[in-house]
Write a structure and sequence with these properties.
heterodimer; A: 194 residues; mainly alpha; two-stranded parallel sheet; 9 helices; B: 453 residues; alpha/beta; four-stranded mixed sheet; 12 helices
């Protein structure tokens, strides 16, 4: 984060104004409409280079469970990286593709994609993370300020995720136990049994 | 009296939270009748007083609801359901943000539910009164499905809707037995209960298999004493029910679980002189449709169950074409489904009474190689339509030989059934064997490569 970057507010505003096309359904396992590989390739071209085809494979979806949210975040990330400030930096295609893939995977693990457009804190997290990965900090912030703010905002989300995931495991265990109880096995009256 | 029944059982209050003197008398009557079977299990309605009231309201709602939607338009209750499910159901939460359209929801199948059913139960569902329904696993994925006493009770509303269509308004009440569920299996879950929604009328689930009776003749004596208004079962149990010397008939029969061939239906109608409803019902979503010969298929019964037909790749098939029945919604709040692929195949047509599933065939269709070409198992069903067969299997071996297996009591139709299949299979012919199976049978099977279309 040694380099001073753009106004954070401008990037956050851009995320809030993400066009519907970038929140459409990514193509996963034959379903969906947006080919994210093509979208990322177009982004690389806008930065002045073509992406190496092999590196784009990560933006193809094999399963909804594994890839849908990640690719949906990548689409929003693509929109962010097409901001005029980013385009003016003419980012290296290989770095662009790799960074976008990493940020999308990381963010998708904690958050449903569209919250990066609808939720103020998540917009800030995505904007700061993307800048940091390319070595920039928001305009007007010191390195220490930018580092602290990004750490705080990411840590709170990670903490939330951890708690949610513990709660989910506990809940799943309780459901399995509830289903195995004698009372559950006895079931209850139905007019017919399939 | 059944050894399984103990008045001091601490679980009894949970089984019958609202039990009154009339209900107790009914339970005693069904259990202590001299010809009563050996009841092997216990269960109950489990409904709390306020849930009994709610059930009345639900029945009125179901009775009056319009079932259907405009062609190519998702019903307006679906998008909010998608939002809710993506917010509260763990499996869907991992998929990210809710999609804008139902068609963008990745379908799920029985295998997904079998892998970890807990992922499909909403976070908002309390677990203290959760019950389960087990499915038989004829497709290789045995399932334990989460449910609730209120969900189980709601079945009656859809059956009553179906009965009303054939002019039967159930009128059983206090001191009478409303419903008897019949099984015919070596091992069967059997019990007695009362329905607080209909003044503690009786409900019994019993097994016609002789193993469960002190004397086989007790079956008819007991059923006559119970005099149920409605008898529910499947083609196998009905084939045995048909043979009992019963002086009185119920007001309606309800068949679920397996294909009810018209031959058996007609025989049942003649024997009992009452309507025989053939209900397409799934443990996952309850009663889906009721067969109506005039409409040529199963008329949908649930107003909050949206049905799509999908091709193998999960795309909706063109109007009128056959596809896998895929359901969204349902009344089981423990298991709200989005695009659940049932494994059953049909076409969908719209009638003035609602959407109708045409040419329903259970589970994925099987193709048979006949005279050098593939034929659908539907053709086999059509060839067997005239026979009152309850229980059969048509199997093609790797060498393409075909065997028709019939339940022992249907072997009288062996020659006629073989002759009916001859035009389909030509010179290679069909051999007939006795079907040795207990319970449900996969009706169409094949070991030939490419048989699963």
């Amino acid at each position: 984060m040694n380099l001073s970057g753009p106004s954070l507010e401008a990037l956050i505003r851009r995320l809030a104004d993400t066009p519907p096309d970038f929140m459409d359904e990514p193509r996963v396992a034959g379903a969906g409409r947006v080919a994210v590989t093509a979208l990322v390739n177009d982004l690389a071209a806008m930065h002045g280079e073509r992406a190496v085809l092999d590196t784009l494979g990560v933006f193809e979806g094999g399963s909804a469970r594994g890839d849908r949210n990640r690719l949906a975040v990548a689409m929003i990330g693509t929109w962010l990286l097409a901001d005029p400030w980013f385009l003016a930096q003419r980012l290296d295609a290989a770095a662009l593709v790799q960074t976008l893939a990493e940020v999308a995977a990381e963010m998708a693990a904690t958050t449903p994609a569209h919250r990066f457009t609808s939720d103020a804190e998540r917009r800030e997290e995505l904007a700061r993370s993307m800048l940091a990965r390319f070595g920039y900090r928001p305009a007007g912030e010191t390195v220490a300020q930018a580092t602290d703010r990004l750490a705080a905002i990411s840590a709170s989300e990670r903490r939330r995720l951890l708690e949610a995931s513990r709660a989910a495991e506990q809940r799943a265990r309780e459901i399995r136990e509830a289903l195995a109880r004698k009372v559950a096995e006895e079931s209850a009256d139905k007019w017919t049994r399939e | 009296m059944s050894a399984a029944w103990r008045d001091d059982d601490p679980l009894r209050r949970e089984r019958f939270p609202t039990l009154g003197p009339a209900g107790q008398r009914m339970l005693d009557f069904m259990l202590r009748h001299p010809c009563a079977p050996i009841y092997r299990n216990q269960s109950g309605n489990r409904l709390l007083a306020h849930e009994v009231e709610a059930q009345h309201a639900h029945e009125r709602e179901v009775a009056d609801a319009a079932v259907g939607w405009l062609t190519d338009a998702v019903p307006d209750w679906v998008p909010p359901l998608v939002e809710d499910v993506f917010a509260w159901v763990p499996h869907y939460r991992t998929l990210g943000s809710p999609p804008h359209a139902l068609e963008d929801v990745a379908p799920v199948s029985r295998a997904d539910l079998a892998a970890d059913i807990a992922q499909f139960v909403p976070d908002t569902v309390p677990l203290d009164r959760m019950i389960n329904f087990r499915t038989t696993g004829t497709t290789g994925h045995p399932l334990i499905l989460p449910s609730h006493p209120v969900v189980a009770a709601r079945y009656a509303a859809y059956h009553k809707r179906a009965l009303r269509r054939v002019g039967v308004e159930p009128r059983h009440g206090r001191g009478q037995v409303g419903v008897v569920l019949l099984g015919y299996q070596r091992h069967c879950f059997t019990y007695v209960s009362v329905s607080p929604t209909v003044d503690e009328s009786g409900l019994a689930k019993l097994n016609l298999h002789p193993n469960d009776w002190k004397h086989p003749d007790d079956r008819a004596r007991y059923l006559d004493a119970l005099a149920p208004e409605i008898v529910a079962g499947d083609p196998i149990s009905f084939a045995h029910y048909l043979e009992l010397p019963l002086p009185r008939a119920p007001r309606a029969l309800i068949s679920v679980s397996m294909t009810l061939l018209p031959g058996l239906r007609e025989k049942l109608e003649r024997r009992f002189g009452c309507p025989v409803l053939d209900i397409y019902s799934l443990n996952e979503v309850g009663p889906v449709g009721v067969f109506d010969a005039a409409l040529g298929g199963y008329l949908l019964l649930q107003s909050k169950l949206y049905v799509e037909l999908l091709d193998r790749d999960g795309r909706p098939v063109p109007a009128g074409e056959r596809g896998e029945i895929t359901v969204t919604g349902g009344f089981n709040f423990c298991l709200p489904l989005l695009r659940y692929r049932t494994g059953d195949i049909a076409a969908l047509q719209f009638s003035d009474q609602g959407p109708v599933l045409i040419g329903l065939s259970g589970r994925r269709p099987v193709r048979y190689l006949a005279c050098g070409a593939w034929i659908n198992n539907i053709d086999v069903t059509h060839a067997l339509l005239p026979f009152p067969i309850s229980h059969f299997n048509v199997h093609q071996d790797v060498d393409a030989s075909v065997v028709l297996r019939l339940a022992p009591d249907a072997m009288a139709y062996a020659d006629a059934a073989r002759a009916a299949l001859a035009p389909l299979f030509g010179k290679q012919g069909v051999t007939v064997e006795v079907l040795q199976a207990d319970g449900k049978t996969l009706q169409y099977t094949s070991d030939l490569e490419g048989a699963r279309s």
